[in-house]
Model the fold of this input.
Amino acid sequence: MTPILSKSEAAELIVSARIRKGLTWEAIAEEIGAPVVWTTAALLGQHPMTQEQADRVCRLLDLDSSVAESLQRQPMRGSDPEVLSDPTIYRFVEALKVYGPALKELIHEKFGDGIMSAINFRVDVSRREDPDGDRVVVTFDGKFLDYRW
Done:
């Protein structure tokens, strides 16, 4: 019996097929009817897909059933610590190091004692034109979860 393809191996095949076919992440997300950030994260190994979603992606990218099988597996969420050194990703780490304590204070002031869910959660990335250089707009939208004793 052949082992199930790892999430990282499947992700490499998906990224290669997407580039070779000239498809955007948005086009793939539209194909499966899911949000683009969620779809991209799932295809990079961070979320399990339904069989229907996995099969549709593989048909679109001309990938075989071994990739679809991997896409349906429960992931080990998070990433290799080395990934955090990537300049784009590190800017998010840096922003949270600087603004994280202020965001925590503001969440507590507005909502009380609790946290923002990263499970009941949406995230969006957009571009906003600006005369001083285009802006990256990232929106985190998480359900507030109050601490209950």
